[in-house]
Specification:
By secondary structure, the chain is of the alpha/beta class. The protein has one domain: Isochorismatase-like (Rossmann fold). About 35% of the residues lie in helices and about 20% in strands. The chain is built from seven helices and six strands. The protein has a six-stranded parallel β-sheet, with helices on both faces. Helix 2 packs parallel to helix 7 (about 175-180). Keywords: Hydrolase.
Length: about 180
């Protein structure tokens, strides 16, 4: 029998702030978290974060190299999980140092320790953490479901292509409502 976990990825203050003009975008994440908790599915939070001084970031890294040069505190408020999806006591918050949820984190050890073989993915951004995690999770032989409306990307066209054409090759893609309905 399979055992699932919901991954809530990169819903940190600095990332959610890019979508502040439309607070309704958080609702599907909240619904997915509530459905997982109701059905005793572990909720695991993943965030990107660095040590003081960004010692893990090489200057050649186009994405994180600019962040290291920005002067933004490595462990500041921007790196914390947004209050609208705040973890409950006992729900792990894993820190990664690259795009994939597995990169430089303890995610795989936690999944193995809990005998989880099925991942339900949600996160910001579709073309970043979700794409990288789908690819790596598939290579690690996890069963994967991507919650299409609990993933966001600043480019709606890229989001659509990934959901319609790329992810279905390695994952089931469905809405939060469809997934939650399948749990009953």
């Amino acid at each position: 029998m399979s055992k699932s976990a919901l991954l809530v990825m990169d819903l940190q203050n600095s990332i959610i702030s890019r979508y502040a003009s439309n607070p309704e975008v958080i609702a599907p994440f909240q619904q997915a978290i509530e459905a997982a908790r109701t059905h005793h599915i572990p909720v695991i939070y993943v965030r990107v974060g660095f040590m003081e001084g960004y010692t893990e970031v090489h200057p050649r890294n186009k994405m994180f190299g600019r962040l290291a040069q920005s002067g933004i505190p490595a462990g500041g408020e921007g790196m914390q999980i947004h209050d609208s999806v705040k973890p409950q006591p006992g729900e792990p918050v894993i820190t990664k140092v690259r795009v994939s949820a597995f990169a430089g984190s303890t995610l795989e050890q936690i999944l193995r320790a809990q005998e989880i073989d099925t991942l339900i993915l949600s996160g910001i951004s579709t073309s970043g953490v979700v794409l990288s995690t789908v690819r790596e999770a598939a290579d690690k032989d996890y069963s994967i479901t991507v919650l299409s409306d609990a993933c966001l990307d600043l480019d709606p066209e890229v989001h659509g292509v990934l959901m319609d054409k790329v992810f279905p090759r390695q994952a089931d893609v469905m809405t939060v409502e469809t997934w939650a309905g399948s749990l009953a």
